[in-house]
Here is the input.
Amino acid sequence: MTEHEQDLAWLVNLLANLGEECERVSNNNPDVRRNALGFAFKLTGHAASALTLLRDKSALVAEGPRFLDPPSLLLLARAGWEAFILLHWIFVAPADDEDERRLRYQRWSLESPRRRQHFDVILDGQEEQKEKERRSIEAVELAIKGNPAFTRRSRSDQHNLLREGGRWRPGYPAMARAAGIAKQFADDHYAVLCDHAHSGWLSINSLKGSLTEEKANQIGEAVTLSLGIATANVIASLRYLFPDLRPMTAEAARRVAAWTAAGRGEMS
Here is the structure.
């Protein structure tokens, strides 16, 4: 394993243990902050899978030849990055404004159920499920309308925030920059990850020819760097959201700080 891969594995293990501790300390006082843990667990899974692909490679059958699959690695990096950015924007960025934090979570929670309302009914029970979710959507919409963070917005902003398809959040690059992430990662690196996710020209063109060892190493470094920055920032975010956690060791604090600094463009 490279140094960055070793660091990422260490950070992911720290995040997994921290997530379990967050669950324990929040059991007695569950509030909207507890929902941040789902984003953290999602990032943990993506990062672990990326490390597995880097270590064991891919194969058509278990006994077949192994090969590195860069697009899949970069897709995992993008999914993990977005989990970090959304966690920060929904739960951390509102700071001490609990109404705003709750509003952002409420609005985010509408996206998937609303989309499923337009699915074709194919299996038995789906119509009943859609009806159940429709009632849940209406309940969340009503809760949003009663949220002080919503009522203090202008009429136009209220309309755009609540309507289906409305602009309820900034784009990922803007949210990343607001989280203190340097342009190199917030804009440039994220654009490359999106190109691979959407089968862009860069993604397809990069598959021409054989994958050299140098190129494979570059891809591994890019993936572990972005996931390391995301993981360290999520660790810092959870420690902010759950102040009753046990203190980190000096070594853990140093390593997390080094990786969050890397995300701000302060590479050592």
About this structure: Residues 29 and 139 are 23 Å apart (CA to CA). The chain has two domains: 1-93+179-268, 96-170. The two ends are 20 Å apart (CA to CA).
